[in-house]
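User: Look at the shape:
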Amino acid sequence: MTKTIRNRRLRYSVVIIAVIALVAVFVVRLVDIQVVQAAELNEQSKAKRSIPVTLYGTRGSIVDRDGTALADSVTRYNITTAPRLVKSFTGKLGGTRVKQVSVDAALTAIAEASGGEVAAMEKAIAADPTSDFAYLVKGLDVKRYEAVRALDVPWLYPQQQSARTYPTGATTGNLTGFMGTDGAQAGLELAYNSCLAGTNGSETYERGEDGVQLPGSTVTKKQATNGGTLETTIDSDLQYMASQDIADAAQQIGAVSATATVTKVKTGEILAVADYPTVDPNDVDATTDKGAYGSRALTDSYEPGSTIKSAIAAALIDQGKATPTTGISVPYSRTFPWGGTIHDSEYHATENLTLTGILRDSSNVGITELGARLTTQQRYDVMKKFGLFQPEPGIEYPGQPGMQYGASPNWDQQTDINSMFGQGISTTAIQVAGIYQTLANGGVRIPPHFIKGCTTADGKTIDAPDVQPERVVSAGAAEQVTDMLQSVVTGGTLVGMKPISGYNIAAKTGTAEVADGAKGYGSDRIISVAGMAPAEDPQYVVTVTFTKPGPGHKFSSSAAPAFRTLMSQVLEKYRVAPSTTEAKTYPSTW
């Protein structure tokens, strides 16, 4: 009996010791987990259940003068997964019958719904089978996203983001520019990126071991901020017309490139800036000419030719050196003491021309004879006041020529002469438009501009251009030159252009030789027309320019049909009242 009790006590002791030892092991392990490895295990656990999500700030829109979107942001979806959770499951896979769905079947269905590739998705999953994140397909539109979501695959996780679209395509691609994988690449997208760009935010959510998001677990760490809206002065309908007009004309005359502009006289607002060729920002890779990524009207400098003569005539009248009827004898050519020679575009016997006749016939010799009544500095200063030789203050656009000229011209004797008929100096198409806006506006220049400003997400307007008016020449000088330019249409270099019924038009042609590097000038030409209507009270200025037209089209008369078409469309679109008086002209000869 005593032995039995002793054995029983021993067994109890062994059991107690074993229990104590087991508890000790658990305590040690618990301390190790909760104290020694607590921080590390916490992070590992959190990393497996806490999922970061980027909240995308929507990029702001670029809109025309009426609010029509030229560039906009649309919602797109990336489909992601956690590779460690990818496995077969029981579900309908978009059908009506519950079944066992293999991984291969699920990926095939996802590819069909999204337009993705099974091989690419398999590669993404296999890259790290134990990870919690991988992209399966990116950039789905709403229709494809809904198709994927309808499959009800448990290990798919959509990620919403913003993508760029350009509703007006190539029509305004020269202005809007475009976005690339590295952000803004060209045009207004690049110039105003700081206002347009949204600011991304972030949030996290937790999901269980089965990959399902835990309700109520989302925590927003930073709110996203949308970008601002860039408001332009562009009329997208007119922009389309201008684009079609110069594209058709350029192809007909075999020009390498072309531009067209439309400016509202009283405000300096640019309503259209068209280029040919141009880029479709929805399909940039289709454009092989990288020069078309932007706007040649804004970035290409060229020698303007005879369109500059109107500014010289206005300066002569303004400073009392000539009147519209001042007459001189004009030979076909002039030879200078240093050996330089100039001549008119077509041979003629010596003619008695007035300043009006010089503009009418676009005489190089005549404008240099009268223009010499102004000093070199006076002519330089007035051309600079007209907007030449300097960047446009009202336009922010990448690639504009610097044109940082000094206070005095650095010209040789021949360039001093040539500058009076637009050779040896550089302008852009927009600067030429600015000259004619100034003349049409009674001698007051309003810097050309096509941006009103950018309205930020909180309602503030920033980036408004500096467009302070400045008087360049007197109202009388501007009005007289405008009247003189009507002779160009009624009996001068544009006499062959069909009239625009009911309207008096004042315009000037330009034919400039193209510099051929060190060889001087070659046979290529740049032809242009710049004009305004109605001449007695100008409302709109239109310019067209064609670079290197083909054989038979080396004269500015080949640019006239496009000018007439576009000006007619402008007058009709804005319901400009017809002229009520006859065209005012001055004697062209004496």
